[in-house]
Amino acid sequence: MNLTQKLLLLLLLFLSHHADSGSIVKFLPGFEGPLPFELETGYISIGEEDEVQMFYYFIKSENNPQEDPLFIWLSGGPGCSSLVALLFQNGPLALKFEVYNGSLPSLASTSYSWTKMANIIFLDQPIGTGFTYSRTPLVEKISDTNEIKMIHEFLQKWLSEHPQFYSNPFYLTGDSYSGIIVPPLVQEISKRNYLCCTPPINLQGYILGNPATDNELEENSKVPFAHGMTLISDELYESMKRICKGKVVNFDSRNTECFKLIDNYKKCTDKINTQNILLPKCDKNNPDCYLYKYSLLRKWANDESVREALHVNKGSIGEWARCHPYLNTSHIRDIKNAVPYHMNNSIHGVRSLIYSGDHDMRVPFISTQAWIRSLNYSIIDEWRPWMINDQIAGYTRTYANKMTFATVKGGGHTTEFKPNESFIMFQRWISGQPL
């Protein structure tokens, strides 16, 4: 850090005492007693006229917040709230799985929170996600590239309001569609760090779970995944390899025989819960269904007392939704392939952990392994099981570009299916230990 940047940082530290850097939340409806960790919520204004209000939850590390890493968590979708990660995947609280009886759903402490050893910003993004909103109507639709610019602006402004975290090692993390957003955002931060006049972000690495990377590769990887999991027959698989060239997208539309094979493939797989093929596919309003907890979350997040406790601006949004259906369909997907960004980040020496729940059919581990191989880096730690209490928790391999790949045995599309195992994986990696 040069002299100009040091002086600017001192100024920011002074100004931070007078800045509105969010509000501390000491109690949450549904949780008994004061919160056993420090939670801050708030908005960061984005855009030329501060029209976009990006909502965040910031939880300080329960260990040593002054020195522990600073993470930003970006949920996928696009359009899924980071509150889902906070309460289901890797946060210090979780919704109790109870049949709704008209009262507010309850919260309980967890044992697998990543905040045990990291400071985490859970960000609602893009606009319209969770409690993030725009004060004015959008002139254009949200795209991957302008979302990346907004998140980078958010980070710069958030850190200017919390300058004590500039020196903490900084990591980006998320899952699913954030696999498209995080790698180019890492590149953007790395590039901007070389420019003058703002203190650099202490970028160290990124973590991605079941990351969307190359849609065509992922869709076509579902065929060998389905075969390997005995969802389709040997005969159908071999026929699809031969006649459809292994494709379920972008195949020759004149190939009527391939159409028939794909129809048979869909008949075998359409009733599968693609988030985790071991679980039933059922209505999330059914209390016997694993996804029922999403219904509980909707009731909790839309309770007026909860919004007041979280300091959500009144009248800013209508009903809170776990994943915004409009954003998922209207979002302009102008980054088609994230692999070049992974390559560029590797060239700049950025660490990464890429993990896959091995029973996820939305982004099968087969596709993730394929694009990692395409980077053509040498292997420095061969394929092996990683263990918890003498039991296999998954498999892992490390590459010369500081990239570690790991599977989570029995895991699905997100860490909510195996939160304890995922926490131990995270704990070892962030500490620099072998999995």
From TrEMBL:
GO BP, sorted A to Z: proteolysis; secondary metabolic process
GO MF term list: serine-type carboxypeptidase activity; sinapoyltransferase activity
Protein origin, superkingdom: Eukaryota
InterPro entries: AB_hydrolase_fold, Peptidase_S10
Keyword presence, Glycoprotein: yes
Residues in the signal sequence: 1-21
Alphabetical keyword list: Disulfide bond, Glycoprotein, Signal
Recorded family membership: Belongs to the peptidase S10 family.
Protein name: Serine carboxypeptidase-like 13
Organism: Microthlaspi erraticum
